[in-house]
Amino acid sequence: MKKLLSIFILFVSFAALSAQQTKVSILKYEDLEKRIQKDNDKLLVVNFWATTCAPCVKELPHFMEINNKLKDQRNFKMILVSLDRLADKERVLKFIKNKNLTAKVILLDDIKRMNTWIPRFEKSWDGNIPVTIFYKNGEKVHFNDGEMSKEDLEKTINNNLK
Q1: Taking the model in full, what pTM does it have?
Q2: What are the residues whose beta carbons fall under 8 Å from the beta carbon of 119, sequence distance 6 or more?
Q3: What's the CA gap between 11 and 101, in Å, rounded?
Q4: Which of 17, 118, 135, 155 is buried deepest, with most CB atoms within 10 A?
Q5: Listed residue (21, 91, 79) closest to 47, CA to CA
Q6: Nearest Cα to Cα of residue 45 among 63, 60, 29
């Protein structure tokens, strides 16, 4: 029985590790924009955050809970866009592991051009994070500036997933 339990624990540990990212894609704004357009057959939730942003870190468990519930649906996808510096890539990887982030994480290496790409996502976005943008069929359907509660996130997703 002890051996069986040990094997089970080992299996669960490997399964949990395989669900997490072990590397982070590094993209420029144009590449992120192409990726958003590529996923035009589903509801795409794009969350901009950073490891040093307290409200970002606070809301991430809600995002993960909902992502874990919906990730197998063909018409749903979540992307977490880290605005941490490229030099902090290892910190982002550790954060992914420690916080058990299961959604796709991208490191946006385009800080110097923020004033160019931020208004292309949303004219009213002042650059503060967290920010979450919802796309359906490649079109923006909702912009949320600031921290999202689990209830607001679920409501926005449910209203647009139909």
Answers
A1: 0.85
A2: 125
A3: 19
A4: 135
A5: 79
A6: 63
Work out the pLDDT band at 132, boundaries 50, 70, 90: very high
- List pLDDT tens digits, range 146-155: 999 999 999 9
What would the pLDDT profile of 82-107 be if each residue is shown by its tens digit?
999 999 999 999 999 999 999 999 99
Residue 162: CB atoms within 10 Å: 7
Angle at 84 between CA 141 and CA 28, to 5 degrees: 60
pLDDT above 90 as % of the chain: 73
Query: H or E stretch including 108?
Result: strand 104-108
What domains can you pick out in the chain, each with its CATH number? 27-161 (3.40.30.10)
Sole residue written with tokens 């894609």: 25
* Token representation of residue 158: 């449910």
User: CA Rg, the chain, in Å?
Assistant: 17
Spatial distance between the Cα atoms of 127 and 113, rounded to a whole number of angstroms: 12
Beta bridge partners of 144: 132
**First and final C-alpha spacing in the chain:** 47
